[in-house]
């Protein structure tokens, strides 16, 4: 793998959501991962995922209509901007090396955690379990382990 694929370069989401504590910047720090998860649940109403960006805009329109009315329309108009011109997938052996990395696995765990929270909110909206204008109550979304 090249220099741009070094493990330290993958330590991105966790320190961002972890905060300013010095331990947040240490790649592979388990405490930082747990703190990032806690912060995501305590301080963020919703965090979207890029591969489901249209759903993210839809969720924002539903839970914060005053600020995001029409967001899906704007998102659709700018869809071309979010495309990669020439996407080259990694070789299978490169992917295997990445997936073996502790830092990659931690970042993936955090991503899956954030994605699950987003999917829960999206599900509630799509199934009329969360109505427009209804306040999202964090403790209803937070797992008991946090």
- Portion of residues within helices: 40-55%
In terms of per-residue confidence, which ranges show pLDDT below 50 for 5 or more consecutive residues? Answer: 137-143
What's the β-strand tally? Answer: 0
Please, how many domains? 1
Largest sheet: none
Q: What is the CATH-assigned architecture? A: 3-Layer(aba) Sandwich
Mean of the pLDDT scores?
A: 84
**What is the rounded distance between the termini?**
36 Å
Number of helices: 7
Shape type: globular
Please indicate the percent range of residues in DSSP E strands (runs of 2 or more).
Answer: under 5%
Subcellular location: Golgi apparatus membrane
Keywords: Glycoprotein, Golgi apparatus, Membrane, Signal-anchor, Transferase, Transmembrane, Transmembrane helix
GO cellular component, one term: Golgi membrane
Membrane topology: Single-pass type II membrane protein
Account of the 3D structure:
52% of the residues lie in helices and 0% in strands. The protein is an all-alpha fold. It has one domain (16-140): 3-Layer(aba) Sandwich (Rossmann fold), CATH 3.40.50. It is a single-pass type II membrane protein. GO terms for molecular function: heparan sulfate 2-sulfotransferase activity.
Describe the structure concisely:
It is found in: Golgi apparatus membrane. The chain has 146 residues and is mostly helical.
Search tags:
146 residues, mainly alpha, Rossmann fold, 7 helices, 0% strand, globular
Blueprint of the fold:
Layout: H1 13-18, H2 30-43, H3 53-63, H4 65-68, H5 71-77, H6 92-100, H7 102-126
């Amino acid at each position: 793998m090249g220099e741009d694929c070094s493990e330290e370069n993958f330590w991105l989401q966790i320190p961002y959501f972890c905060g300013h504590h010095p331990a947040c910047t240490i790649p592979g720090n388990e405490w930082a991962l747990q703190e990032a998860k806690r912060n995501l649940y305590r301080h963020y109403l919703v965090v979207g995922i890029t591969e489901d960006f249209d759903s993210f805009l839809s969720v924002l329109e539903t839970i914060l209509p005053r600020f995001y009315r029409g967001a899906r329309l704007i998102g659709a108009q700018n869809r071309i901007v979010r495309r990669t011109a020439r996407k080259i997938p990694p070789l299978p052996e490169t992917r295997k090396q990445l997936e073996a990395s502790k830092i990659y696995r931690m970042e993936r765990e955090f991503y899956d955690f954030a994605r699950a929270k987003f999917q829960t909110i999206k599900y509630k909206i799509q199934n009329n379990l969360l109505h427009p204008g209804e306040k999202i109550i964090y403790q209803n979304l937070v797992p008991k382990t946090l």
